Structures are given as structure tokens and as C-alpha cells.
Amino acid sequence: MPMNTPTQSQPSCNDPSEPDALTVDAAVDKIVADINPISAFEQLPIRDSLGRVLFADLHSPMDVPGHHNSAMDGYALAAEDLPESGRKSFEVVATVFAGQPFSGDLKKGQCLRIMTGAMLPDAVDTVVIQEDVQRIDETRVEIGAGHRKHQNIRFRGEDIRKDAVVLARGKTLRAADLGVLASLGVNEVQVFRKPHVSFFSTGDELKSLGETLDKGEIYDSNRYSLFGMLSDCKVEIFDLGVVRDDPQQLQKTLQQAAAHSDVVLTSGGVSVGDADYIKPILQQIGQMEFWKILMKPGRPLTFGKIDKALFFGLPGNPVAVMVTFYQFVLPALKRLQGSEQILPLQLPAVALDDIRKTPGRKEFQRAVATLNEQGVLQARLTGRQGSGILTSMSEANAFMVLPEQSGSIQKGDTVMVELFTNYR
Ligand code: AMP
Ligand code: MG
Q1: Nearest CA residue ID for atom 15, ligand 1
Q2: Would you tell me which CATH number, out of the four given (2.40.260.10, 3.30.160.670, 2.170.190.11, 3.40.1190.20), belongs to the domain 69-154?
Q3: Which value, in Å, is the radius of gyration of the alpha carbons in the chain?
Q4: CB 316 within 8 A of CB 370
Q5: Which of 207, 267, 276 to mutate to test the pocket of ligand 1 (most atoms within 8 A of CB)?
């Protein structure tokens, strides 16, 4: 991975127009450009493959449906036997159910009572739905004109052709895909191995849950929000706890973590305070990029490699941790997982608030997106937006993404939102 020489100038908080600062998009591009998908796969029963990424194209072992069959309950006959005008009487020679093929012959003037999904015998090519048929007695029906050859029929292979690529490498398997695999009789699939992700929090002020807070101390929350975000993305999680602001300890933990991980994440210690050691340690033991990103929150981002592991030094502020995880770590994880879809979907929404903003940085405001009475997506902010105010994330279901060049937003303007999930 090519690494730039570390940037010596420090990011300032009041000058967003530094020439060496990167846009969010440029940083994401740089991060994913050098990541190759993990080259190992697992063979899993299809139930266990839910949410995982397909390692190899899946070719269909058969046609689906495997035989021409009726799409409706009705009467099956040969189209050439249908009347061109008026009505015609047919003898009903058998009833054909799904799974019970009819093996007899059909003469002119004969038809079959047929159920949805039942296999069509060779002699018939058309199904007339029962609502269009007049039943005369037990063995006779009358059918009128105006029907089309091949109506109400599902043809062999119309959904999936034998040997066609049904699911492509890089596809994240969802519920429908499990159904598709089952419909092909496929029991097991190859998926990319899960990335191994280690993470720890840094800071002398941090206490773990169960410990008593002394004066000036706070509970470590980042490890929990990171655990939550990682749990949503099918990775092996290694929680390494809290590490003090002690260079030896930090270095040792980073090296151990890198030795058995594909990705190492830390939070805190990446700004320019006296106890911010992550940057110099990474310069010593790995390759480092320190970027000033034109974004808010989450400005300085440390990214690099320790041995073969990718390293992200996330900021300490709880909201900034979450924003930078979603914007930078998640695309990297998706790339490692072999996924073809690595960027979040953005949707337009009507802003319900006036929002003050100066051009320069991309802002990720925490928002609640809903549909209004006309069915149009709208979004309001979740109150105060400081990067330490984690309840702003808790209340939100979306980021409102205000691009770098955007100035203030007025109520009623269209803004873009990134939904956290599909739930309201
Ligand atoms: P730092 O970048 O280490 O100076 O941290 C920035 C801010 O985030 C400080 O107010 C820290 O106390 C806070 N912070 C850092 N790590 C955590 C954490 N794991 N949980 C909660 N707050 C944190
Ligand atoms: Mg700190």
C-alpha cells in the first residue's frame, strides 16, 4: 500500500479550506483502492450464509421452473382447439394436481381440469382460468372465444436457465437469495471468510463497566458502540478493552492485535494533545496516513497498516467514532468481505429545520427521517449536534449529509439522508 509521508502541519478547527485536506469521498477512495477482498472462503449450509458475501458465481444446476406448469386454477387445452367465435363444449377427461403429472393423451374437444403449479402435459399449451369457463356437468365445460395461446402458463426455465449465473460473486446473500438457492436444490454455498476485527479504547480517563468512577473519569462508551456497529456487519470481533495512555502498552497491544487481525480499530488519542500517542507509534511500527478530512464531526483520521492489518485510529469523541466508522471503516470492511456494494445509499429528503453551515466541510448531522402525509421523505435534526453528544445518535435513524460546498440550509430545502436501517 503506498503511503504518503506524514503530514506535519496540524489540523486547525477554524480553517476548513486547507489545501492539503481531503474530501470524505477522496479519503474513502484512497482507503478502498488498495484493499483486496479476503482470499479465503468458507463453505456453509445456506441458512448460515445469510448476510455473508458469495465467494464464487453460482451457476444454476437446473431450469426453474423445471417443467411448463399452470399459473392458475382452470382448464388446460390445446390453443388450436379453442373456438374463434361463439362457445364450444369440451369434455373434461381428468383433474391434474401439482406434483401429480397427467400421463394420458388428449383428443380434440377434450380438456383437463388443472391446478396452479400442476405440470402441463405435452398435448396442452394454454390454460383458461376457471372464472372464464362455464361448467355444464361433471364432465363437460363450455369455453368462449378471445383466449390467447400460452396464456396462464409458466414456462420451463422462465425464472432461471440451467447453467446461467444466478447469484454473482460479491453478492450479499439476503432472505430471497436463500429461497433462490433452495429452489435450485443447493444446500451449501461458498462465502468469503469473515474479517477479524480487533479494537480497543485509549485514555487514562476511561473506566470499564462495573468499575467505580473517580473524579474526572468517564465510562468507556466507544467500545460498546463499536461492538454494536461491528455486530451488524458479519465480522469476527475481538474486544481488547481499554489501554492507558502509555506508549509501551499501546505499542504492545497494537502489535499483538495486528498479528491476528485483518483490521485494527482504536478510538481516542489521535488528536494533538500531550497524551495522543497513536500517531507516533504507528509511524514507528507501521505505515501511516494522517489525514485532515473536510468533515464534521470526525476531522483528523489516522489510517494505515501494521504488518498486514489495516489500521484505523478513530477519534475519541463518541459521535465522531460512529460517523467515521460508517464513512470509512464500513466501506473498508465491505471491500474485505468481497462485497460489490460498499457505499451507503443516500436519499433526498425535505429539511424540516433551518441549519447553519459554512461551506468547506461535509457535515453528518444526526436526523430523524420520516415520510410526511404525501409520502415524501422528510428529515429533522435530533437537537444539539456536538460530537460528544451521543444521544443525538441514539435518537437518530439517519445522517443528514450536507456536502462540502453547501452553505446554510433552509427549512423546505432538499437534503440527502443516509438511513441507518430500514426501520422507522
Ligand atoms: P481524545 O481524542 O483521546 O482526546 O478524546 C476526545 C474526547 O473523547 C475526550 O473528551 C475523551 O474523554 C472522549 N473519549 C475518548 N475515548 C472515549 C471512550 N472510549 N468513551 C467515551 N469517551 C471517550
Ligand atoms: Mg484520549
Answers
A1: 316
A2: 2.170.190.11
A3: 31
A4: no
A5: 267
